[in-house]
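[Discussion] Sanity-checking designs against the backbone

I'm trying to build intuition for which residues belong where. Below is a structure token string of 240 positions. I'd appreciate it if someone posts a full sequence so I can compare it with mine line by line.
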């Protein structure tokens, strides 16, 4: 949303817009740790960053949230997603990150590109959100950014045990990381961060160099799960 929108909108519209943005951030998950969020740089020059953070979202957890009720592309009964692409985020070496960078021209993600990304990133609003907040900071064209994100996603093999679990699956963070390392030779334990919401798995994050090769995670990128444990909700038809 632009500052012009806020200047002319009525108070109720501003309130509704703020609540919608808050709901989007809550249902998609926080992009970074609280410490790193303090170092976000809005409107930074595109293309100036040091590495990437690949976010793999556990779809059943999103579909169990209120946001899943309004996401048929991802959560309708016929959809049975496990790990999906949440985003590919530019990072600074000091732990900060750029967001919503200054760009020129029409930056609306066309429907054809949205449809192309849906098999990996099955939420239309998320696709547009990720371009606006993160893709604009890469210095890449819109098409090149989503191609880069898809390549990063496909570079990580999901362990067999975590592809389509039919029942809720409790794991330790160490077990989860070890399984990803076994499935991806060369992926180090310190290149992974596991994010939970209460006891449930929300995301696995992979720290990548600008060349998309794994590298140790930087400042502020760390696992966030109670007692080093998580539960993967089962992949089910429809909502629980």
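Best answer:
Here's mine. Compare freely.
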């Amino acid at each position: 949303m632009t500052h012009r929108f806020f200047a002319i909108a009525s108070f109720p519209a501003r309130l509704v817009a703020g609540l919608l943005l808050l709901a989007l951030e809550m249902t998609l998950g926080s992009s970074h740790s609280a410490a790193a969020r303090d170092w976000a740089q809005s409107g930074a020059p595109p293309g100036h960053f040091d590495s990437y953070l690949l976010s793999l979202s556990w779809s059943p957890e999103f579909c169990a949230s209120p946001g899943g009720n309004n996401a048929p592309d991802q959560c309708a009964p016929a959809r049975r997603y496990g790990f999906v692409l949440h985003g590919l985020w530019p990072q600074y070496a000091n732990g900060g990150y750029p967001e919503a960078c200054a760009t020129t021209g029409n930056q609306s993600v066309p429907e054809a590109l949205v449809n192309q990304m849906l098999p990996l990133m099955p939420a239309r609003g998320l696709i547009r959100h990720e371009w606006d907040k993160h893709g604009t900071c890469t210095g890449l064209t819109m098409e090149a950014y989503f191609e880069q994100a898809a390549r990063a996603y496909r570079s990580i093999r999901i362990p067999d045990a975590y592809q389509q679990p039919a029942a809720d699956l409790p794991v330790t963070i160490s077990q989860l990381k070890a399984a990803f390392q076994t499935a991806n030779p060369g992926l180090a334990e310190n290149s992974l961060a596991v994010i939970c919401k209460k006891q449930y798995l929300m995301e696995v994050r992979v720290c990548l160099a600008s060349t998309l090769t794994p590298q140790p995670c930087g400042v502020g990128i760390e696992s966030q799960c109670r007692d080093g444990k998580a539960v993967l909700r089962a992949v089910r038809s429809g909502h629980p």
